[in-house]
Amino acid sequence: MTLRAVVLCCSLKPSPAPSSSELLGREVLTALADHDVTGEVVRVVDEHVKFGVSTDEGDGDGWPAIRERILAAQILVIATPIWMGQPSSVAKMVLERLDAELSERDEQGRPLIFGKVAAVAVVGNEDGAHHVVAEVLQALNDVGFSVAAAAGTYWVGEAMGSVDYADAGPKPDTTGAATKTVAANTAHLAHLLAAQPYPPS
Predict the structure, then answer these.
(1) For the chain, how many structural domains are there in total?
(2) Which CATH number covers residue 119?
(3) Cα→Cα distances 50→57, 94, 97, Å
(4) Per residue in 97-129, pLDDT tens?
(5) Is the pTM here over 0.90, yes or no?
(6) Which residues of 112-135 are buried (b: 16+ CB within 10 A; e: fewer)?
(7) Helix crossing, 89-98 with 129-142: angle to 10°?
(8) Under 8 Å between Cβ of 154 and 25
(9) If you write DSSP's letter for every residue of 61-124 in order, what string do you get?
(10) How confident is the model at residue 140 (pLDDT cuts 50, 70, 90)?
């Protein structure tokens, strides 16, 4: 079975500006392809998403179209930079919009998100990657996403440095290895849940 993934790039920069978080997100997507997963990358700031905690904030809100992609996929990857030790404001907006899924149920009474698997990719020039991974994965799990073992990959540059991930060169034994693990474990769990969904509560 071929599964589908959506990578939400939570860069503050609109396209076509280069984005290290998008680069790492695309690397996760490439690694997922080795495990029968296809997908796409969506740069959230390009989609005119409104602030809010509903599935549709109306009047040109870009979130409903993104939500359709998430619901049609089995895997969601949040790719975010670190700013002041935190996920980007765009990532936090995405989590706030996903809060609406707590009240959305399938015909058996399960949250629509049950059965979907989440992972996180983080880049930044300061320490804080573990905090960002933990914060984002906890929020995603709260709304119903499952989380595989070692579901976060990251790259963090030198403190107070100015080198971006895109300019740092390949890191096959560190970030690259973590990305392969994220992809393998996330795809494995997603395949299991696709074949045998969670039971109704």
Answers:
(1) 1
(2) 3.40.50.360
(3) 7, 10, 9
(4) 999 999 999 888 888 999 999 999 999 987 899
(5) yes
(6) bbbbbbbbbbbbbbeebbeebbeb
(7) 20
(8) no
(9) -SHHHHHHHHHH-SEEEEEEEEETTEE-HHHHHHHHHHGGGGG-B-TTS-BTTTT-EEEEEEEE
(10) very high
DSSP code of 179? H
* 105 contacts 112 by C-beta, under 8 angstroms: yes
- Give domain status of residue 27, yes or no: yes
User: Domain range holding 112?
Assistant: 3-195
Average pLDDT over residues 148-160: 92
What tokens were used for 170?
Answer: 């390949």
In a domain, 78, yes or no: yes
With a cut of 90, say whether residue 161 has pLDDT above it.
no
Q: Which amino acid would we find at residue 1?
A: M
75-83 and 86-87 strand pairing: antiparallel
CA 164 from chain center: how many Å?
20
Does 135 map to a domain?
Answer: yes
Q: Is 24 helix (H, G, I), strand (E, B) or coil?
A: helix
